[in-house]
Design brief:
The complex is a heterodimer of chains A (508) and B (333).
Chain A (H helix, E strand, L loop, with lengths): L1 H8 L5 E12 L2 E12 L3 E5 L6 H8 L7 E6 L2 E3 L4 H6 L2 E4 L11 H5 L6 E2 L2 E2 L1 H14 L15 H13 L5 E5 L7 H16 L3 E5 L3 H7 L2 E6 L2 E7 L5 H9 L17 E9 L7 E6 L3 E6 L5 H8 L7 E6 L2 E3 L4 H6 L2 E4 L3 H4 L7 H6 L7 E2 L2 E2 L1 H14 L16 H13 L5 E5 L7 H16 L3 E5 L3 H7 L2 E6 L2 E7 L5 H8 L1 H4 L1
Chain B lengths: L1 H17 L4 H6 L1 H17 L6 H26 L7 H17 L5 H25 L4 H20 L4 E2 L3 H8 L1 E2 L2 E2 H19 L1 H11 L1 H6 L4 H26 L2 E2 L7 H11 L11 H20 L4 H27 L1
Antiparallel strand pairs in B: 1-4, 2-3
Helix pairs in contact in B: 3-14, 4-9, 4-12, 4-13, 4-14, 5-6, 5-7, 5-12, 6-7, 6-12, 8-12, 9-10, 13-14
Classes of the chains: A alpha/beta (508), B mainly alpha (333).
Chain lengths: 508, 333
């Protein structure tokens, strides 16, 4: 009925996809309790929800990776059954996953036609493959050649290749899962232009992102799901991010950023004239007990590199590091840990987590000495350590034996933070602590940071999210091209000031 | 907050359940254990001798040397590596021990120590190269496999070195009470390996490195030390197997231990350890080695031609790994 009424309302806006009352359970979890989603032709429909809300499960059902337990799916009003990926492709559904799934050593055209290469006389017809890839690339005005290796392209270009690959199946429905998480602003704009072109051609797009700003820019309607349940659908123009956040977390977040500023006195860490012979030159800064020192700057400005030097992962060629007034040489992470330094790295997946291991394993990895003496494991103590951080960081996990790979991004991040808190650090370095983390967990991580600072831990926070930097930091060091281009006190902080310092070299 | 409380309560309930001794072991190795039990029952029915005490000790003795190596191999494979040189180390340490007694007149203790040090040295070399470079372990140990085998041939001129000494023979063929010596070593080695992997910090570091080497570095783990340890340990275990075998055969033989690396790998894989690293247990490896041992013993008892035994072994490995694969992919979805 609804479909008919909509059709009457606007002839162009026919309902393309309907997913009704979808239910899906896994052993131990009911991932989707009752979720519905409706996408019109030429619409960008954002799917919003905290990590673990069931977005990926819903998408995986649509893409044929999971099959639904209950509910139905129809396309252009016709009920369809999606049992596997081939079914999904047949119905014109393509999914661009959050992690790129391209083969770096192969060419662009090989990647686009992977698994369905044109064949001539039993051999792959490279000519035909390259020329159709060429056509596709040209239709998007892309300056990429079909025989470029994927590995030689920028992330944004790779993302575009993914889009092209998805569309080369003649998709009517395109799902994009956090497509901008690794793109720069310029690249994001380019992606949005592409999305607008697709809209004109009547493709329906399901767009998943945590960035509210983006949703305002690109989406027509927004559907919010929470804990596997459908919460509501809003026209983007008639809603606010406050309203959406409240829908997502199920309560109004009165205070998103928690921060009580105190006057730091004791100097914990002093870095003077540090350089690594490559990017970094003349890096000097102080860090005080109980403060949060922000590090802002563009990607590649050298922020993470400094932290790797301080943490003993990369060698320094000049300069000194003083901890509590004493000069130290740090040659390995092990030494850094002994000096009370902890680093929560930028990439959870690559640099921090052991996904096939349990929450317990991941939390206790750095504090084994607390309960292992030789081969004697004090299990009570081990559990106590794990429980302490699971509860103090409110890590949501069914049991502490759960594999970390199965947790949501926000909870994974809390596990990593827990691992380092268990080492009782004096200096806690957080590199992009809220990247890929949902709004609720973000707010929780901020209050954890605030508590730690109040307890006297000195925190360094690298962040590319300016609101986060501005609201959380006592002071901010802005970096540009491997140097510190300025230090701003909390009172001086503004987006403009930071961006000005971060792009200094471009202006000169 | 509600959720957190619920989670804590749930986990509190779950703990005792996980802590029933042996429960985890049975659950993890369910597939292979069932196979093992069926195999034993079948053989017990088909052959009256199978369950005789002597036959069981015989099986264990045969399994023993494979398991020394397989225990260390479990660690190496969990680390995401492989050690192909162990078969050659068996030969090398055997001939070094034999040679030191027969050619140079060293005391038994010195000769055994010499044999063990030879294996340890090859293992340490593997470990050094693998931990300091990015050359794949497969290549490094393929090279040392050839070098060690070659060294054994060169040292002996290709001939077995006979050692007619009862005290030497006791190492591999003696008994402590009614238990053959190799089984005594076996129990010690399995126990130590279990402690290392399941109880020690080193063990956790092994799983960490195998699961995500970069994250291990970021966690302040010295990957190179752990790698060095694992390959050195592997060399030492192979050397122990070499000395035991030489002692049992009254001679150091340069042809000893051919294909031993593959038997060890088979035991590890049958035991459910992932070839891509990060997962695996000593308990599984023990069962894996027992399956291989019981299988060939059973086939012998049934009088099946040894040529056929290879085919059976291969098929069993395929079935076991396939069952494991089904189990794991089923879990993921």
């Amino acid at each position: 009925m609804r479909a008919v009424m909509e059709q009457v309302k606007t002839l162009q806006e026919t309902i393309l996809l309907e997913m009704n009352h979808i239910k899906k359970g896994f052993p131990g979890v009911q991932a989707l309790k009752d979720v519905s989603l409706q996408v019109k032709t030429g619409e960008v429909h954002a799917l919003l929800g905290e990590n673990g809300a069931g977005k990926s499960t819903l998408i995986k059902i649509l893409g044929g990776i999971y099959t639904l337990d209950e509910g139905n799916i129809s396309i252009m009003g016709n009920p369809v059954e999606i049992q596997n990926v081939q079914d999904a492709q047949k119905h014109g559904i393509s999914v661009i996953h959050q992690e790129l799934v391209l083969v770096p050593h192969m060419t662009v055209s090989e990647n686009i036609f992977l698994g369905r290469e044109p064949v001539k006389a039993g051999m792959v017809n490279f000519q035909a493959m390259n020329s159709s890839a060429q056509e596709l690339l040209e239709s998007f005005d892309l300056d990429i050649k079909p025989d470029d290796r994927i590995g030689s392209l920028t992330i944004a270009e790779q993302q575009m290749v993914e889009v092209i690959k998805a569309l080369s199946f003649n998709s009517r429905i395109l799902v994009m899962d956090e497509p901008t998480s690794s793109l720069s602003d310029k690249e994001v704009n380019f992606l949005f232009d592409t999305i607008r072109k697709l809209k004109k051609n009547g493709v329906g797009i399901i767009y998943i992102s945590h960035r509210m700003m983006e949703l305002n820019q690109i989406s027509d309607r927004i559907t919010v799901i929470r804990d596997g349940e459908y919460i509501g659908t809003k026209e983007t123009q008639c809603t606010s991010s406050d309203e959406l956040i409240a829908m997502m977390v199920g309560r109004t977040l009165t205070k998103y950023y928690t921060r009580t500023f105190n006057t730091p006195r004791e100097k914990v860490l002093e870095v003077a004239g540090l350089g690594n012979g490559k990017l970094l030159k003349d890096i000097s800064f102080d860090l005080y007990k109980g403060e949060i020192l922000g590090f802002a700057g563009l990607v590649g400005a050298g922020r993470s590199e400094i932290m790797k030097c301080i943490f003993g992962l990369d060698p320094i060629t000049e300069g000194t590091i003083l901890i509590e007034g004493k000069p130290v040489t740090i040659r390995s992470a092990e030494q850094a840990i002994r000096y009370g330094i902890a680093l929560v790295p930028e990439s959870r997946k690559k640099e921090a987590l052991f996904p096939v291991q349990s929450v317990k394993f991941n939390i206790t990895l750095r504090s084994l000495q607390k309960f292992i003496r030789g081969v004697f494991v004090n299990k009570e103590k081990e559990l106590a350590v794990t429980r302490e951080y699971v509860s103090s960081l409110s890590i949501k996990t069914p049991t502490i034996q759960q594999l970390v790979g199965n947790l949501s991004g926000g909870n994974q991040q809390k596990v990593v933070i827990g691992r380092w808190l268990a080492t009782d650090p004096k200096v806690l370095i957080l590199d992009e602590p809220t990247r890929g983390v949902d709004v609720g967990s973000k707010s929780e991580i901020y209050s954890i940071m605030n508590e730690l600072a109040a307890k006297g831990v000195a925190i360094i926070m690298i962040s590319s999210e300016l609101p986060e930097v501005i609201n959380m930091s006592d002071r901010v060091q802005v970096m540009c091209n491997g140097r510190i281009s300025g230090c701003l006190s909390h009172a001086e902080l503004s987006q403009e000031r930071i961006m000005q310092l971060a792009t200094q070299h471009a202006q000169q | 907050m509600k959720n957190t409380k619920a989670a804590t309560v749930k986990s509190a309930k779950a703990i005792p359940f996980y802590r029933i001794p042996g429960f985890g072991f049975v659950k993890e190795n369910m597939g292979i254990l069932i196979g093992f039990v069926i195999l034993c029952v079948l053989l017990a029915i088909l052959s009256p001798v199978f369950l005789a005490k002597n036959n069981i000790l015989n099986v264990l003795r045969q399994v023993a040397t494979n398991l020394y190596i397989a225990c260390a191999m479990t660690m190496v494979i969990i680390l995401g590596g492989i050690d192909l040189s162990v078969g050659s180390i068996i030969a090398l340490s055997g001939v070094v021990t034999g040679g030191m007694i027969a050619f140079d007149g060293f005391s038994l203790t010195a000769a055994v120590a010499g044999g063990l040090i030879a294996g340890l040295a090859v293992g340490a070399f593997n470990g050094f190269v693998i931990s300091k470079t990015t050359i794949p372990p497969f290549i490094v140990t393929l090279a040392t496999m050839n070098i060690a085998r070659g060294a054994a041939y060169v040292y002996t001129g290709g001939q077995p070195i006979r050692v007619m000494s009862d005290s030497f023979n006791f190492i591999g063929a003696g008994y402590l009470g009614e238990i053959p010596m190799p089984i005594i070593y076996l129990i010690i080695i399995v126990f130590i390996s279990f402690l290392i992997l399941s109880k020690s910090k080193l063990g956790r570091h092994i799983y960490a490195i195998g699961g995500n080497p970069q994250a291990a570095v970021f966690s302040g783990i010295k990957n190179s030390r752990v790698l060095f340890f694992a390959y050195t340990f592997s060399g030492l275990m192979a050397a122990i197997a070499g000395v035991v075998l030489a002692s049992r055969m009254f001679s150091g033989q340069p042809t000893a231990g051919q294909g031993a690396e593959m038997d060890a790998i088979a035991a590890v894989v049958l035991g459910g350890t992932s070839m891509s690293g990060g997962l695996g247990k000593i308990g599984g490896t023990v069962i894996g080695a027992l399956v291989i041992g019981v299988l060939s013993n059973g086939l012998n008892l049934l009088g099946i031609n040894s040529f056929w035994q290879y085919i059976v072994k291969g098929v069993v490995i395929l079935i076991a790994v396939y069952v494991d694969f089904i189990k794991k992919s089923g879990k993921k979805l």
